């Protein structure tokens, strides 16, 4: 692409070298002469976890909708992942999933999922990103503030603390700054310091604890699955277990506890937690497997959505994306794919702008509205599930209980109905909207089963004998 095609300016800055940050940089490189990613961590050359990503020790999956976006930005990326060690699975046929008190049906779905560690995924994205000469990754550079025009109506760059912070801060100018720094985003604080309001926030306290370790898989000729997910059934069971395949022929095993019921990090306690799950299958799979790593733990306190789409006043030249807008329960694995779809909306919006006029002053408004529509799907799935626990702290909408009554019954039908199971997975993969749950055929299946289950047994329908 020639410089004349890059109509929005000379320089764009992305705060954060996360997966979302790298995808964003790729999109911006098509519209700016150069793009700089500022990452506060030291960026490893290999697939080692970064200090600033505590969840990096736990498994990450990319669903079909998210991988489609990544392949669009980096053609052939998913094939390269598979060649380099990512495990490719049919998400229904090769997934053994206990959910809502039933084992899901396992039809061949055609929905491809990619399983690997997060550092492995990041390393492969960085490798592809380095081939783009317009993008530079600056590790160990912390952004400490925003630069503005005199009227504080437009962001003109960032204030940066390089290296160990012993030297003077530097001023880096840019026509666009995108905050992809994750759940610890400082943008609300920076906005407040510039006399803007903080975004309104929706918060649901779930207090989840993770404990993960790698295993050498145990040998079992009867095993017909690659992935196992064993969810506790609310409201009585707060414990969940996962077995995920990752690069190197290993298992990454995660135990998860809701509502401060965190799994322990010692060997004996780890197996005891596994034994306490609702079904024995998880424990049976790992009890004879060989541990390869210590147990790593991670706490996730709350789902949080910063509602930038509701702000009536916001500085031009600034955007926020990915976990810096919304973080939702990682148990459902939708974070990376949701972020990729937000990046896709950014790409479409940039390409729709008139050439030669720069980025419109109200560009942020259009982007945040589009991002909110992407977030609506995983937010609904995550928070509705979280509210199945009465102890979850957060504002319940009037329809929450009624919707959960219905969705739980849809999930239970997944035990023997391939078509409903397929619909559920297509929603999870961002192929369909959640409104697909209300297709007339699914509504009929739910209600007819409810009516059947509500009817008394035939024997109780008999009239009592007359007393003469």
Secondary structure layout plus pairing:
Elements: E1 11-15, H1 19-28, E2 34-39, E3 59-62, H2 64-73, H3 77-84, E4 87-90, E5 95-99, E6 102-103, E7 112-117, H4 118-129, E8 135-139, E9 141-148, E10 155-162, E11 170-173, E12 176-179, H5 187-193, E13 200-216, E14 227-230, E15 239-246, E16 250-257, H6 267-275, H7 281-286, E17 290-291, E18 296-307, E19 318-320, E20 326-327, H8 335-352, H9 363-386, H10 400-413, H11 418-428, H12 440-454, H13 458-461
Parallel strand pairs: 1-2, 1-12, 2-8, 5-14, 12-19
Antiparallel strand pairs: 3-7, 4-7, 5-6, 9-10, 10-11, 13-16, 13-17, 13-18, 14-15, 15-16, 18-20
Percentage of residues in strands: 25-35%
Low-confidence stretches: 1-5
CATH 4th-level superfamily of the largest domain: FAD/NAD(P)-binding domain
**How many β-strands, per DSSP?**
20
Mean pLDDT: 91
* Rg, alpha carbons: 24 Å
Structural class: alpha+beta
The level of helicity is 25-40%
The coarse overall form would be globular
How many helices does DSSP assign? 13
For the terminal residues, how far apart are their CA atoms? Answer: 97 Å
Predict the CATH topology of the largest domain. Answer: FAD/NAD(P)-binding domain
CATH architecture type of the largest domain = 3-Layer(bba) Sandwich
User: Strand count, sense and closure of the main sheet?
Assistant: 9 strands, mixed
Describe this structure in words.
The chain is α+β, with helices and mostly antiparallel strands. It folds into two domains: 3-92 and 109-202 and 303-374, FAD/NAD(P)-binding domain (3-Layer(bba) Sandwich), CATH 3.50.50; 204-300, D-Amino Acid Oxidase, Chain A, domain 2. The chain is built from 13 helices and 20 strands. Strands 5, 6, 13, 14, 15, 16, 17, 18 and 20 form a nine-stranded mixed beta sheet that branches. The protein has a five-stranded parallel beta sheet with strand order 8-2-1-12-19. Strands 3-7-4 form a three-stranded antiparallel beta sheet. A hairpin with a 3-residue loop joins strand 15 and strand 16 (250-257). Helix 1 (19-28) packs parallel to helix 4. The protein is globular, with a radius of gyration of 24 Å. The relative contact order is 0.15. The model is unreliable at 1-5 (pLDDT under 50).
């Amino acid at each position: 692409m020639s410089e004349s095609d890059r109509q929005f300016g000379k320089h764009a800055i992305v705060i954060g070298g996360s997966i979302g940050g790298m995808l964003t940089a790729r999109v911006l490189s098509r519209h700016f002469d150069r793009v700089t990613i500022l990452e506060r961590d030291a960026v490893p050359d290999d697939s080692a976890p970064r200090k600033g990503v505590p969840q990096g020790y736990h498994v990450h999956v990319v669903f079909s909708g998210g991988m489609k976006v990544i392949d669009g930005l980096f053609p052939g990326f998913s094939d390269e992942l598979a060649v380099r060690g990512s495990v490719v699975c049919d998400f229904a046929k090769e997934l053994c999933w206990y959910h809502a008190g039933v084992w899901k049906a396992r039809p061949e779905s055609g929905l491809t999922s990619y399983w690997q560690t997060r550092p492995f995924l990041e390393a492969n994205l960085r490798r592809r990103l380095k081939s783009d000469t317009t993008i530079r990754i600056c590790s160990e550079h912390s952004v400490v503030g925003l630069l503005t025009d005199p009227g504080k109506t437009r962001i003109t760059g960032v204030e940066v603390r390089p290296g160990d912070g012993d030297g003077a801060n530097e001023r880096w100018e840019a026509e666009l700054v995108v905050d992809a720094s994750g759940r610890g985003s400082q943008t609300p604080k920076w906005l407040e310091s510039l006399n803007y309001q903080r975004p309104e926030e929706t918060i649901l306290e779930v207090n989840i604890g993770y404990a993960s370790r790698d295993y050498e898989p145990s040998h079992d000729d009867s095993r017909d699955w690659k992935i196992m997910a064993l969810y506790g059934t609310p409201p009585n069971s707060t414990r969940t277990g996962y077995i995920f395949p990752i690069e190197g022929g290993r298992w990454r095993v995660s135990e998860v506890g809701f509502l401060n019921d965190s799994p322990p990090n010692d060997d004996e306690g780890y197996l005891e937690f596994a034994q306490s799950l609702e079904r024995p299958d998880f424990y049976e799979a790992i009890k004879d497997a060989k541990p390869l790593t210590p147990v790593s733990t991670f706490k996730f306190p709350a789902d949080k959505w910063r509602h930038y789409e509701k702000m009536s006043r916001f500085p031009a030249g600034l955007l926020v994306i990915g976990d810096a807008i919304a973080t939702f329960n990682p148990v459902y694995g939708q974070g990376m794919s949701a972020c990729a779809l937000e990046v896709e909306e950014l790409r479409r919006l940039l390409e729709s702008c008139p050439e030669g006029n720069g980025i419109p002053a109200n560009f942020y408004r259009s982007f945040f509205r589009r991002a909110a529509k992407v977030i609506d799907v995983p937010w609904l799935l995550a928070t509705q599930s979280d509210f199945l626990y009465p102890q979850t702290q957060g504002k319940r909408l009037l329809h929450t209980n009624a919707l959960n009554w219905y969705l739980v019954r849809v999930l239970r039908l997944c035990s023997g109905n391939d078509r409903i199971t397929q619909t559920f997975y297509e929603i999870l993969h961002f192929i369909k909207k959640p409104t697909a749950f209300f297709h007339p055929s699914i509504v009929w299946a739910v209600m007819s089963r409810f009516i059947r289950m509500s009817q008394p047994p035939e024997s109780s329908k008999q009239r009592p004998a007359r007393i003469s």
